[in-house]
Amino acid sequence: MSSVPAKRSSLGRKFWTQRYLMLLTLPAVLWIIVFNYIPMYGIIIAFQDYTPFHGVIHSPWIGLDNFRELFNDPTFRESLSNTLVISIVKLVFGFPAPIFLALMLNELMFKRFKRIVQSLSYLPYFVSWVLVVGLMYTLLDPETGVVSKMLVHLHVIGSDTMLMGSEKSFLTLVVFTEIWKSIGWNSIIYLAAIAGVDPQLYEAATVDGANRFRRVWHITLPALKPTIIILLILSVGGLINSNFDQLYLMQNSMTQDAANVLSVYSYKTGLVSGRFSYATAIGLFQSVVAFVLMYAANYSSRKITKESLF
Amino acid sequence: MIASKSWAGRSFDWINVLLLLCLAIVTLYPFYNIVITSFNDPTDAARGGITFWPRQLSIENYKMVFRDDNIIHAFGVTVARTLIGTATAVLFTGAFAYGVSKPELLGRRFFLMLAIVTMYFSGGIIPYYLVVAKYLHLKGHFLVYIIPNLFSVFNAILMLTFFRGLPKEMEESAKIDGANDLRIFFQLVLPVSKPVLATIALYNAVAHWNAWYDAMLFGNENLQTLQQILMQIISSNSNVSIIASSLGFGSVTAQSLKLATMVITTLPIVFVYPFVQKYFVQGVMIGSVKG
Amino acid sequence: MKGTGLKVLATAALSLTLLAGCGSNSESDKTDNKPSDTGTSTDTAQTQTADGPSWKIDTSPFTFSQYFYGNWASNYLWKDQYAMKLATEKTGVKIDRKLATGNDEDYLNTMIASGDLPDTIMLDWNNPAVTKLINNGMVYSMDELMDKYAPELKKMLDPDMVKYHSIDGKLWYLPNNYETADRLTSGIPITPIRPWFIRSDIYKAIGSPKIESTDDLMTALKAAKEKFPDVNPVGVEFFDVAKNGFQGSLSMDFLIDSFSPKLLEEQVIDDQQILQYPMRNKGFIEAFRYMSELSRNGLFDPQLLIYKQEQYQEKLYGAQYAVASNFMNNIYADFNPKIESTIGADKKYEVIGGLKANGQDPRYPASRLMGWQGFFITKAAKNPERIIRWAEYAWSDEGQMDFRYGKEGETYDLVDGIPTFKPEVRDMMLKDNGGWYAKYGFQASTLMWRSGKLWDSAAARDFQADQPEQFAAAKLLEKYNYDKYSLGMDNLEPDGSSPEGVINAKVKDLWNKTIPKLILSKNDADFDSIYNDFVTQMDQVGAEKVEKVMYQRHLADLEKKGVK
């Protein structure tokens, strides 16, 4: 009987000792509730036959009908597998790329050169996908494109191959342009983490006779490890999502099937055809899967590496 | 870096330099090409074949973009939101990240979960609009650029990861000296976290600089942003050319205008990077902790 | 997540143009063209009654807000242009006109969903959002306001227009650019298709042969390819069934209307109560077979199958095609002038007349505009009384003349009873159109274009004088036009969210994939088997259900137009 108030008061005391910490944390918590959780009632239209005329409140409820239709919809299944294939390949090649770049930059001896390369490598991040895709059309034109000609010369492709209109080259192009566009930008966070490494560690290692690869392996990489793991966990959660802009713009009548990923499909059903509920159901499916993936990644990471997001 | 004298080490250096040089060219060239094409006569550019320098120098595209007298005002609004928005967001998000980086914080996992869930679930644009415009009455107020952008889960997580890696001893000794958490955060933690703060500031600044959708939904004439105006110019794809003609910019095409707007919006923010870079000089953090 | 969501919607929407249904070419052409000259003559007499116009009752300063659906329309913003000042001087009214940044659809839907509307809206009358505005009770009915405040306006309206545009017995908006039946026979000739053009220098070089049939065209293209191996023989606009309709590329109409001159009539099968998809029509498919023949002869660059609008446009600015297709006004008002100023006048494009196929003349389904945008007064309007009275002004002859020509003696004179701009105004219009817009703002103030003999004949005269080449080209093609109005072929496709709409979307997807396969087929047998596969698949997803719905919609369209 007496333990309950005691517990409460100890909780209260604990809170009081943390009052400044709470002062730092709680405003953001409030913000999250206002800007993210209050609008979340919008999700319920996935369980309705929503029409803008009736609004969220008066639209008829249909339970899980949308989801039932979803799992029987061949286009949905196709877009799901496209999404996963593209994401996994992107993850395998795209995730390590900025880490390598950061490491390579860090190993550069010429400081000025390092700075220049670093600045240049993040330029593509600012070029919009519309322009990137336009550029691809120019460079990959079978008749006039520089890159196309080069590839023909190297016998990688035939002289009449339309790279932009081929389902075979689609995945390669998607992954390559994605890496090209984001490698520099994504390496920034790793460079920031490397900046945190104590130079004395390197000096000590050199004195001990460690060569460059050993130094990278034993000093730089461990310093990057938390960042790598956290970003990896988040990327695993992102496997179900794909870059809408890129795929939507790269889609044409000949790559239509290959580029049909979930986000494109949901856009087409929602905004183009006006099936808001169905599109929301697709979105909700993506959210749940993403969350589960992220949770699983976090769990395994905690077990294996002891590092985790939460 | 200590230069290694061995043959293997030296050849590694050169291969490294060579690879990065390739990367630099591959990333720079398309950008460079966009810049020179935007300075070429637009219709002439449509013939293709501009590789290293403009064939017919022309600033027609830029004249068309800058004909809008609101653009200077919009530039000011954009700079203001970028500066204020970045500073406030870094602090606000950083404070949260620091709080949840402390294992002893009550409800730490709950708060973190609360934040992470929002990365995956959202109610869509219309309920969000109602919250901002109808309940908070932020529509048409400059703060609509600041408050809804105060927090980002992703940035919070990056900072959290960084804060977790800070040596415990530093804060413990400060605590013994009687400093409270507020003082520790502002006077000890923030100064040693420059690399990550610089990174997050860059992320925020770029996002603010490029934002236009919120300006369209919630802004008004006085709150127009640079990107918004430029989006307006290029958004009417098929009509751009005819509008350009009707405005007296006979040779401007939809494509050329896109290039010019990209150059205008990108260049200022691209030049921010060198300032951020100086915080990436090795050893900033640990050095200052120990010193 | 939210951030990405916004970006996704916004960016994607940028490249998304309105879904153009199969029968709505003239509408989309019009939108491209910014309806500035709609020469039509009506005999509806517009006279003021003795009571005097209602808008004169109160001319104190008054401002109302307006959202204009069309983010490109920066010319229409009210600053202190001449026409705007003139309207304000007379009525006391100013318009605070707003445009969306980025995608209009997003902007509009957010406004509607949140109930945050301006006083008035100018919105395409056939936009799906119109139903939402009406059903949600967000707009006043015009009848209600006119009866109360502006009875004169009601008398001015064309009864046919009122019938066509009424929904549930009420008129909810005033449509601008509603054209009467005379539109097809008088005034500026209509060009309901995207014609094909040939580059002048190439045409001369191959000996200016007659191109009167599809076979002639093939021969000419072969000759062009021989003489100019570096130039692409044929250029057509981008292919996208979802955006352009079943013809895939808007340029295909030119061929389809040759190979299948009675397509629209043949689609209706009354005894089965279905309206067939055009893909079931033999002539329609023959047009694609012709494309395939072009491709087999090396006369068609397969890249065109995957190009977006930008890529094709860029190449056309560079005059890189021997034969190219585009919207008529774009060629004469945009591409040709640009080509002339950079590449040379000899590389301009000239129109190819209508093409016979299998000995038959083509037929182009022309239609007058049933209206472009509707003027809506929302329930959020603070003073609907002033607004409807202002609309009476805008609709009146006086308002029309103010809007189009300004003040007599100051900006225009009547020459032979037809308004003519003063030389300095006209000069500026032709030489410095941008400056002219900024200074005078004609055709940009009220935006309530309506037919009227006076200005329509002036527009026809000016068009002929200012754009002789385009006028001649349009005249050349005009003889193949027929009025499709009474066929009841407008707004046929089912609503996208209905079960038939879902099937229709699938059919479109299938057809979109099939087009490149057909065009790139190696021989006729190959072509046929691809086509037969498509028909089988289309039937499998339930195309017939859509065809039944389209038939019902066809009947409804006839009903609405009062045909039968």
TrEMBL record, chain A:
So where does this one cross the membrane?
21-47, 84-110, 122-140, 170-195, 216-240, 276-297
Location of this chain's protein in the cell: Cell membrane
Keywords on this record? Cell membrane, Membrane, Transmembrane, Transmembrane helix, Transport
How does the record classify its membrane topology? Multi-pass membrane protein
Domain ABC transmembrane type-1 as annotated: residue spans: 80-297
List, alphabetically, the SUPFAM superfamilies matched. MetI-like
Primary localisation category: membrane
Q: Which family does it belong to?
A: Belongs to the binding-protein-dependent transport system permease family.
State what protein this is by name: Sugar ABC transporter permease
Organism of origin is Paenibacillus terricola
UniProtKB/TrEMBL annotation, chain B:
Q: Which InterPro entries match?
A: MetI-like, MetI-like_sf
Keyword Transmembrane in record: yes
Family matches, as Pfam families: BPD_transp_1 (PF00528)
Q: What Gene3D superfamilies does UniProt report for this protein, alphabetically?
A: MetI-like
Per UniProt, what is the membrane topology?
Multi-pass membrane protein
Keywords on record: Cell membrane, Membrane, Transmembrane, Transmembrane helix, Transport
Q: Does the keyword Transmembrane apply?
A: yes
Where does the sequence pass through the membrane?
A: 12-32, 71-98, 110-130, 142-163, 184-209, 257-276
Kindly list the places in or outside the cell where this protein is found, as annotated in its UniProt entry: Cell membrane
Q: What is its main location?
A: membrane
| ABC transmembrane type-1 domain ranges (all copies) | 75-270
Q: Which family does it belong to?
A: Belongs to the binding-protein-dependent transport system permease family.
Name the record gives this protein: Carbohydrate ABC transporter permease
What taxonomic ancestry is recorded?
A: Bacteria, Bacillati, Bacillota, Bacilli, Bacillales
Automatic annotation (TrEMBL), chain C:
Q: Which SUPFAM superfamilies match?
A: Periplasmic binding protein-like II (SSF53850)
Top-rank taxon of the source lineage equals Bacteria
Q: Which InterPro entries match?
A: Bact_solute-bd_prot1
User: Which keywords does UniProt give here?
Assistant: Signal
Query: Biased-composition ranges for Low complexity?
Result: 36-52
- Residue numbers spanned by region Disordered: 24-54
Stretches assigned to coiled coil? none
UniProt signal peptide: 1-20
Indicate yes or no for the key word DNA-binding.
no
PANTHER family, A to Z: ARABINOSE-BINDING PROTEIN-RELATED (PTHR43649), DIACETYLCHITOBIOSE BINDING PROTEIN DASA (PTHR43649:SF12)
The name under which this protein is listed is: Extracellular solute-binding protein
Native organism: Paenibacillus terricola
Instruction: Please name the taxonomic classification of the source.
Output: Bacteria, Bacillati, Bacillota, Bacilli, Bacillales
